User: What shape does this take?
Amino acid sequence: MSNSLGKQFVITSFGESHGSLVGVIIDGCPAGLAVSEADIQHELDRRKPGISSITTPRREEDRVEFLAGVFNGYTTGAPICLAVWNRDVDSGEYEKARLLPRPGQADYTAGVKYGGFNDYRGGGRFSGRITAGFVMAGAVARKLLYAIGVEVLAHTVEIGGIAARPGEPDKIRETAAKNAVHCADAEATEKMIAAVEKAINEDDSLGGIIEGIALGLPVGLGEPVFGSVDAELSKALFAIPAVKGVEFGAGFKAARMKGSQNNDPFAIKDGRVVTTSNNAGGILGGISNGMPLVVRVAVKPTASIAREQPTVDIGKMKEATLAVKGRHDACIVPRAVVVVESMMAVTLCDLAIRAGLIPGVIK
Amino acid sequence: MSNSLGKQFVITSFGESHGSLVGVIIDGCPAGLAVSEADIQHELDRRKPGISSITTPRREEDRVEFLAGVFNGYTTGAPICLAVWNRDVDSGEYEKARLLPRPGQADYTAGVKYGGFNDYRGGGRFSGRITAGFVMAGAVARKLLYAIGVEVLAHTVEIGGIAARPGEPDKIRETAAKNAVHCADAEATEKMIAAVEKAINEDDSLGGIIEGIALGLPVGLGEPVFGSVDAELSKALFAIPAVKGVEFGAGFKAARMKGSQNNDPFAIKDGRVVTTSNNAGGILGGISNGMPLVVRVAVKPTASIAREQPTVDIGKMKEATLAVKGRHDACIVPRAVVVVESMMAVTLCDLAIRAGLIPGVIK
Amino acid sequence: MSNSLGKQFVITSFGESHGSLVGVIIDGCPAGLAVSEADIQHELDRRKPGISSITTPRREEDRVEFLAGVFNGYTTGAPICLAVWNRDVDSGEYEKARLLPRPGQADYTAGVKYGGFNDYRGGGRFSGRITAGFVMAGAVARKLLYAIGVEVLAHTVEIGGIAARPGEPDKIRETAAKNAVHCADAEATEKMIAAVEKAINEDDSLGGIIEGIALGLPVGLGEPVFGSVDAELSKALFAIPAVKGVEFGAGFKAARMKGSQNNDPFAIKDGRVVTTSNNAGGILGGISNGMPLVVRVAVKPTASIAREQPTVDIGKMKEATLAVKGRHDACIVPRAVVVVESMMAVTLCDLAIRAGLIPGVIK
Amino acid sequence: MSNSLGKQFVITSFGESHGSLVGVIIDGCPAGLAVSEADIQHELDRRKPGISSITTPRREEDRVEFLAGVFNGYTTGAPICLAVWNRDVDSGEYEKARLLPRPGQADYTAGVKYGGFNDYRGGGRFSGRITAGFVMAGAVARKLLYAIGVEVLAHTVEIGGIAARPGEPDKIRETAAKNAVHCADAEATEKMIAAVEKAINEDDSLGGIIEGIALGLPVGLGEPVFGSVDAELSKALFAIPAVKGVEFGAGFKAARMKGSQNNDPFAIKDGRVVTTSNNAGGILGGISNGMPLVVRVAVKPTASIAREQPTVDIGKMKEATLAVKGRHDACIVPRAVVVVESMMAVTLCDLAIRAGLIPGVIK
Assistant: This one.
């Protein structure tokens, strides 16, 4: 396994779904950043299930605990360790996963790779629950970015094929954070909620698309060729369970455009060089160009569905069926919004430090 | 800059478009692998322009030269250094790029980031030409993978909005390698060629989509969470200039499917666990599942077009226009096919070594 | 800060002397290794103070707690998180350190580097207490090495200028582990104890030298040039607070020998290639040669002494004096023996995995 | 193999003794640094053999060639590739090394590790010749350090047991650079030269000790715990072939001192905090403290001696003897002085960039 990400602002993820805790260590965070448990909790709460009719009734009372690296309310320069303890855990249902791997999950591959020693309860290390660690790290990263004028926002732009109309940052801040699907388009929101409710009734699940935006980035983040903004962000985003695609700016649509349409013309606005369109999604040659960074992330439908599915009995090596019981979100997209924001924040912090844009001590 | 990729099989890219050479170092390649200049040259030639009516008339006689790490026809365990020397270089046209950044290129961002000291000739370090190094590394990686029964294939599946029908591996091997657009669908090939010719006539350019496939992968590659197969591959693929999107298996389509459709059912075939569909693209929980690995890469249309485009004069800080002269591919997709294959091979080698699947000495 | 070490078997150290805990994460440990809390506790107890007349009367009841990565008594392949909670903490004395930096300690440099935000209580992140994390990681590493027939041993060879006679492995195992100074030479042991008692009475402190030995190493560990056995071990050993020198084999004495004396002649013994002397300390060209690996580590005298010392008042920028109160070991060498062993074990595990000598699943 | 060193200022070493070239890539060097071939050549020439009666008569006309990363006399931010081509190569003598491994060399361990595929000619990748790459990288690093007021100096302090009296920086700059043994003490110099001449006559060789000093370092370099100044420097220094020991400040002598002697008292001088002694060698808690950084490196006697030595015939697995012909330095210490300086410069650059002390563009 390889559970660390970043070069100068390095996060290390640890913990399992049904073990003692889920945590994260942040190494390389500058000293002097004010962080409170409330700052972290605020982001964690955005990931919380059970906040609407369409999320799992599981009550995860995730309370962040600071285990190291923060003293008198400020980061010290030492590694920061943040954790949430696991509670309300029911592992009974998962015993099956050992022998009847759930389709669309890591049960089978992890079982082979780790010789059956992997903690299979609740998906163990492969559970979406580990993203609580991502969110805690993201909460710190977000505060650091704020110190250099950068804001990271994400919102749901599609669920079950229902697409939202493009949303402005203000709208995203106001609306998306509050409604059950974290979508900035009120009309689409209603349809999305209805679609998820339908999926719940059909013992099925839905996927969707999340858009992440970073505002206020200076020109110059990104360490090409292999530390480019897009390379580093995509790596971080594909580490989120259920992500199957990542695109920047016009993304796959750019493949269908002509050069004359896709090239963003340069212009001057308020004495600054800008582009008049943003098909590049804020990245040229792997380096931020000062325009909003725009990334879209495809999230597959939740793999755990109550419907019966074909699988195999690994012990007997014969075909079998499985209906996944337990409490699962029929659509993980709304809860993943803050996770996308978090991984963006973590990666942009690392790149900003690497580019010399964040000092070693925050004042 | 950050020009190394990988953890155990590490490539370091160097060189510029109009400097002395373009090269690559491979560190961590097992000893005892037979490699000849012909092996490398064969892959390099697939990247060569000037092989058809639709590629640039530039004649890049890229001859690989072994500078280190190979002795008596075998790798020695030492770092392998491979290079192609630059010839047929005409830097005159590029002087402009200093002050009139080309839209869709790195001229502007690199100029700001490196304080104007970057080598701007031919895009310098940001030129597509650096992918010659990727291809040389890929040629070695491909031979290593072959030793464990893994084959990597790529082909063009879309150009200018013209999509190819799905292609079988045999078809890809036979057809795609030979035609001008590296597409396995003869009918689509003709249309794609016509579309590119039209773009040339209109002083414009086209993008497209490349599909990469890895066959024969064992279960167990991938080091979750941050060294997962998808995270590592996406990072490598986004380092290819002009790539704007990466998706695995059903990719963005998965976002529109229901769980019951998207989950790949497990079954047993010839005594092995398989899935009866492959929406996962061969990856579960970031680990290879033994099915074909499938990735699709969106390539934007070539930014350098002869048509006049709005830009800014950086010196005078006022708006201006620019028509990019020089010899550019109107569609880079066909030449990028071998680059996608190469970055896949390099990344899969690294993951295979990290998973203990390739020994330290090949026999 | 940079708190991770290793490439494939990676430890991340976290926690502070007077914070909540001191811990370590091990990422990359193969699955299937049996580890119990007793295994870890056994090593931790060897580091415990208060076990003899010459160590600090502080009672650190360090009980290891498994927070992640172990399930049903076996490693799972997931990151292992081990911690000891801090108790019996008295931070009062340390308030001074903010303004009156203790000579020979990190107070001054950390204060400048982290802008005064560092946790100064008990030295915070710079306390010898963080080596509890090293020891916990070492306990796991040691079990892994054992699985491939490698044993790591350390013993005190000098304290306060009193040198022990060379000790054989059997002697070290039997004697060194038990006596108060962890020395295999009974006669020297008595003198060392007397010397430390004298230092205590004089409000002073002593340093010494620890020798580490690894037995059973196969030929081939080490990834030259920068991942050589000596380069990697020295890096790990200099991370132990108070270490000021590291030498392999004949070490500094080799500088005074002739080539004809220092070169270890090759010979054949029991069908194996051996050397008839071991001035190389088991390393040729940065690679293990199958002979015992021998390293010696110089440990400076404890910096915290009750005697009055000159320092400066950082607030007033004027000279001052300081007598360090608190409970400190007058000689840290005996407690550092297990720390040296641990860092050796951790580093050798990493190198063994990198060389393909430890499989991904232990059976 | 693992041939890259550093995190932000990363050098990658490549090439073999009797291959095409020896080279180095520097990745992460800020843009805008003026570097000329003369700058590099000046340092390379200090490593040159044949400059006195006591070095090998081999005439290595090492001319640096810039292959990438420098444009119009300035670094561009792109990876810098520097090389010297191999000439005057006589590989005949080395064929033996395959079957009769030279005592004290890597022939045996490399042969086993790389399955006999290693380039054994002249020691191949294990030759001291690869340090030409270290010196080229060091020449660039040195210029960067100069830009922030840091100077790195090294000199010979012992050869064959003959110790020099302590040397002041001025003396080192003036004298050590010029005489045949790079020693700042004229009296010791004569004795050292005589000792080396005697060793040559006896077909034997001598080792020695080199002291490296860095002046002008600000407080704050070093990323504890594993990126501390001492940990990183020791790793870099042990990568130099023949180095068997590294110590900082009082080093092994500190092990014999009392705390009250070894602790460096703080004082104020010219409004700055200083220490009145420097047993710490400029490092407290792994962080530079503003005093001169002092490191000493033990170099073993040259392993290649013309005298007959016992070895084994690997093919027949029986004991044999070997006299190493060829042109070898009887004492490598003088030529290693600039190599020690270079590795210090490279490491301190990396740490300075990591600490935010060197900007991304030099002006």
Observations:
- Chain B has a mean pLDDT of 94.
